[in-house]
Design a protein that fits this description.
Length: about 220
């Protein structure tokens, strides 16, 4: 899938694609470098798109590891199935909100790392909370979560106004440690967030929790 095709898909369905171009190798390295992959048994990737980070992940994972990839965009799912014929890859064409349910359904109670390219700014507070509650419940104390966000990232509020999306503020609600790194060699430039120490959180967002999650 070339850059032009990716861009067309992004414009058609920006809420699920969340990106305007495939991740560069520099962004992929920044996302994967902090993760404990050499001895990993189970890793989750959310929003793999056309597989730029997926391929890099598989190159670093042990031969007997499992990579569970959540991709809700059907065109990208079909592309991944044909372009990444690796038996360690299990592709799930379902929402990230069901992360814990789908991971546990496949017999896993713990994951070593979660790599996310989700368009978090486009999700509702309740959707973000449900996603992160699943992530935190699956990651152990040594597990690590990484997420990237474009340098200029906005979210549409209910009042119809666009505002800057404060991802770091959101992440601190779910992790005790949040570090940020800027990657200039990507289209467009992005921040990578490395999150450790998952907090215990409520499984489902209540109205109050969802309201509190607004940035």
């Amino acid at each position: 899938m070339d850059l032009a095709t990716f861009a067309i898909e992004a414009l058609t369905d920006i809420r699920t694609v969340g990106a305007v171009a495939p991740s560069s190798r520099h962004l992929a390295n920044a996302m994967l470098g902090p993760l404990p992959l050499k001895k990993a048994r189970t890793v989750v990737e959310v929003g793999p798109g056309t597989g730029a980070i997926t391929r890099a992940l598989l190159n670093r994972l042990p031969f007997d590891a499992t990579l569970l990839a959540f991709e809700i965009n059907p065109r990208f799912s079909r592309h991944l199935k044909s372009a990444v014929p690796d038996t360690r890859l299990s592709l799930l064409n379902t929402s990230a909100e069901k992360l814990r349910e789908e991971v546990e359904r496949r017999g896993f109670r713990h994951v070593d790392a979660v790599v996310s390219s989700l368009a978090l700014a486009w999700m509702t507070p309740s959707q973000r909370h449900n996603f992160f509650s699943g992530v935190c419940s699956l990651l152990g104390e040594k597990g690590i979560f990484t997420q990237y966000k474009y340098v200029m990232s906005l979210q549409l509020k209910k009042n119809g106004h666009w505002e800057r999306f404060d991802l770091e503020k959101v992440l601190h609600r779910y992790f005790r440690s949040v570090q940020k790194k800027m990657i200039l060699r990507n289209l467009p430039p992005a921040f990578v967030y490395i999150c450790k120490g998952p907090r215990a959180v409520q499984a489902r967002a209540t109205p109050d929790a969802a309201e509190h999650d607004r940035c």
